[in-house]
Amino acid sequence: MKKKRIFVFLLLMLLIGILSFAALSENVEKREPRLYSVILYQYTDNDWTSLLEGIRQAAEDENAVINYVTLPVGGLAEDEIKLLWREIENGAEGILLAPMDSAALSEAVREASKAIPIITLETGLEDEEADISADNYSMGHMLGSRVAEEMIQNQEDSVCVIEEYMERQSIQRRYQGFVDAIREALPNAQVTGYHRQEGDYNLPVCIANLYATGRSGVYVAALDKYCTEALIEASEASVLSKAQAELFRQRAFGIGNTEKIVGGLDAGALRGLVYQNEFSMGYQGLEALIQKKQKRTAQISVEIKAYYVTRDTLYKAENQRLLFPLI
Questions:
Q1: For residue 197, is it left (φ>0), alpha (ψ between -120 and 50) or beta?
Q2: Does the pTM exceed 0.70?
Q3: 75-81 own/partner pairs: CB under 8 Å, 24+ apart
Q4: Residues forming a β-bridge with 35
Q5: Largest interatomic CA distance in the chain
Q6: For residue 230, is it left (φ>0), alpha (ψ between -120 and 50) or beta?
Q7: Of 36-50, 197-211, 237-251, 272-286, which range is least confident?
């Protein structure tokens, strides 16, 4: 009987030890930081400030280590593909990716996704919508609706859309939404596109020359942060007369929320702006990636909101909170 009690006691202690070890291992695993990578297309100062702040906050909350990788200005799709495989080889357990070319990166991302989870930000791949982004068609439609209101009010029927970076699915969706909104409000409106020709390097100068020589008075719309910044620079070009520059500023609209864009809106260089909640895009993007890695969810269900803002509404509470996250 005594031997039996000793055996039961030892067996019980062994079971407790196993359970304790398992719990300890689980806690250690939870505490051990995981390495994730963020790969973004073209980067210059303040391009992704809100997005990166959201990612940093999520990394802190989730105890994750983030390796940030950005393409230089002028980087190519093949460069981003190389970065994608390099990060996998360096031990990344998941990647947040903003593709610079939706078609060119599709096959590489499909292959890389067999190794680790990859979540796309802002723009999708070919026919697939971005995993984490505001609805890009709706953003374009929102901008087009506001431009159409101004055109009707001023009895104008011409608008020029800057057609740059159309290799990104997000820009294609925004373009379609913008044009649809204009056509719905003004069926006979003249919607023309503009993009740089071979040998044209400076987009702001090209836009200013275009406005000064042939399209003075038309409304001008940009569909991404870089082209919207170009509108701001174009409004300051010496080729524009004072009257042309003033009219241009009253008829220039864009999409984006970089520091330069927000400052330009505040200074009156833009009439109106659509932007998405990039802080939420970054925060929820990293959380979704971690959940996907840990297989806690099979579906990504994230809603990122978009907003329209003018100089008059810039300092309303919600816009101020989202556009000035570090203040």
A1: beta
A2: yes
A3: 75/41, 75/42, 75/100, 76/100, 77/101, 77/104, 77/105, 77/167, 78/104, 80/39, 80/41, 80/105, 81/105, 81/108
A4: 65
A5: 105
A6: alpha
A7: 36-50
